[in-house]
Amino acid sequence: MRVTSPAPSRQDQRALQRARRALRCLPFRLAFYRELEGTALSSTQLAARNDWPQLSRQRLQPSRTEDDLIWLIHLGVLRREVDGQGLTERVRLTPLGRQVVEAWSRDIPPARALSRLRHWLQRHWPRL
């Protein structure tokens, strides 16, 4: 007997759509998300890496990277790593993040101007 999973709800579909748009608008490459599937990293660790061109389309600055990571946490793509002391500054990919990332086999294509504008508005003025 084959068990089928229920169809995603409208809310789940909107969350996926919002996450896909964010990944296309943010500077991170597919290799960045693939690395977070197995390893937890912080914004400071990411900014200090010499291989940043493989992970991002632009040079990573700790504060800007942290802002982007917080946004991805807000969207449900990433989560904070937990250790014996509580939450850490490191992040990992969530199941939603894995679902979004699996749509791309090569690199994440950059978003078009209208999609970038919509993403910016949702990020900075979420009540619109």
Structure write-up:
By secondary structure, this protein is mainly α. It has one domain: Arc Repressor Mutant, subunit A (Orthogonal Bundle), CATH 1.10.10. The protein is built from seven helices and two strands. It has a two-stranded antiparallel sheet. A hairpin with a 2-residue loop joins strand 1 and strand 2. The longest helix has 16 residues. The radius of gyration is 15 Å and the shape is globular. The termini are far apart. The model has no long low-confidence stretch (mean pLDDT 88).
Question: Which descriptors would you attach to this protein?
Answer:
two-stranded antiparallel sheet; globular; Arc Repressor Mutant, subunit A; mainly alpha; 7 helices; 128 residues
Specify the biggest β-sheet: 2 strands, antiparallel
Please give the CATH class.
Answer: Mainly Alpha
Annotated CATH topology: Arc Repressor Mutant, subunit A
Estimate what percentage of residues fall within beta strands. 5-15%
Structural class from helices and strands?
mainly alpha
What is the helical fraction, as a range of percent?
A: 40-55%
How far apart the termini lie comes to 46 Å
- The run of helices and strands is HHHHHEEHH
